[in-house]
């Protein structure tokens, strides 16, 4: 299969995203092909070319691909401008300590959110739905719903494509925080609040996840209030970063 120009760039980017999303456990060539829509032979050639340039590594024994050293170097440079994760981790630790739930920090990347950081809570039962590197479409998890609800209407419109999602977006705007009542995995709930960048755009979100019994009734509102407080504080800290 021949690829040229912008199509090639898009396919390579899709391959790198899939490798990055499976950074901890690695991904197989078949998984990359499935996620990107490429024939397996094409995915193999793209991965091999990226490996030659140092953008991915392959564990030959396990047959799995991992992010390579060049991605680390590029990420380190980009972090100087974009990374607010170190600042967010302090907020996540506070949320996890105060609530006992697992706390997460996610960023918007186009029509998706990617989880950048997590701090596990002390409560022994956890949902294990989110993890660092996981990408989800906007509006699916509580973090993505919180961001989607605060996008300008014309920007949000392409992603709000069902009557049910329209209702969830409206409810999020009324409350100020998003609620995911077990829509990804039954029994696993999430609450999210948006974090704004210096221009006032909804760029990130804080969220808490846990089992349903910990999120029903008045406690959902309590967790939402804590998240809003933390999100406002993080937004102010980002705005005043040098």
The CATH architecture of the largest domain comes to 2-Layer Sandwich
Given helix and strand content, the structural type is alpha+beta
Instruction: Spell out the CATH superfamily of the largest domain.
Output: GAF domain
Shape: globular
Quaternary structure type: single chain
Order of helices and strands: HHHEEHHEEEHHHEEEH
Beta content: 15-25%
What is the rounded Rg? 19 Å
Q: How many helical elements? A: 9
Largest sheet, if any? 6 strands, antiparallel
Helix fraction, binned, reads 40-55%
- The N- and C-terminal alpha carbons lie at a distance of 47 Å
Mean pLDDT: 87
Number of strands: 8
Structural write-up:
The protein folds into two domains: 5-73, Winged helix-like DNA-binding domain superfamily/Winged helix DNA-binding domain (Arc Repressor Mutant, subunit A), CATH 1.10.10; 83-239, Beta-Lactamase (2-Layer Sandwich), CATH 3.30.450. 47% of the residues lie in helices and 21% in strands. The protein has helices spanning 5-21, 29-36, 40-52, 69-82, 85-99, 142-149, 153-156, 163-175, 218-239, and strands at 56-59, 64-67, 102-109, 112-119, 135-137, 178-181, 188-196, 202-211. The strands form two sheets. It has a six-stranded antiparallel sheet with strand order 5-4-3-8-7-6, with helices on both faces. A two-stranded antiparallel sheet has the order 1-2. Helix 2 crosses helix 3, helix 5 packs antiparallel against helix 9 and helix 6 (142-149) crosses helix 8 (163-175).
Ordered list of secondary-structure elements with their pairings:
Layout: H1 5-21, H2 29-36, H3 40-52, E1 56-59, E2 64-67, H4 69-82, H5 85-99, E3 102-109, E4 112-119, E5 135-137, H6 142-149, H7 153-156, H8 163-175, E6 178-181, E7 188-196, E8 202-211, H9 218-239
Antiparallel strand pairs: 1-2, 3-4, 3-8, 4-5, 6-7, 7-8
Helix pairs in contact: 1-2, 2-3, 5-9, 6-8
């Amino acid at each position: 299969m021949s690829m040229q120009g912008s199509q090639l760039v898009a396919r390579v980017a899709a391959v790198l995203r899939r490798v990055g999303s499976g950074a901890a456990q690695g991904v197989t060539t078949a998984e990359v092909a499935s996620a990107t829509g490429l024939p397996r032979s094409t995915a193999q050639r793209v991965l091999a070319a990226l490996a030659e340039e140092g953008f991915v590594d392959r564990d030959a024994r396990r047959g799995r691909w991992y992010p390579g050293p060049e991605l680390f170097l590029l990420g380190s440079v980009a972090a100087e401008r974009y990374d607010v994760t170190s600042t967010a981790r302090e907020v996540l630790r506070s949320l996890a300590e105060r609530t006992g739930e697992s706390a997460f920090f996610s960023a918007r990347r186009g029509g998706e959110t990617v989880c950048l950081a997590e701090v596990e809570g002390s409560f022994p039962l956890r949902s294990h739905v989110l993890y660092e590197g996981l990408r989800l479409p906007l509006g699916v998890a509580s973090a993505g719903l919180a961001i989607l609800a605060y996008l300008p209407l014309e920007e949000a419109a392409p992603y709000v494509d069902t009557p049910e999602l329209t209702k969830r977006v409206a409810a999020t705007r009324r409350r100020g925080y998003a609620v995911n009542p077990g829509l990804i995995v039954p029994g696993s709930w999430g609450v999210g609040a948006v974090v704004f960048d210096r221009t006032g755009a909804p760029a990130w979100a804080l969220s808490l996840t846990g089992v349903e019994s910990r999120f029903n009734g008045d406690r959902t509102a309590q967790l939402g209030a804590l998240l809003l407080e933390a999100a406002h504080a993080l937004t102010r800290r980002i705005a005043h970063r040098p």
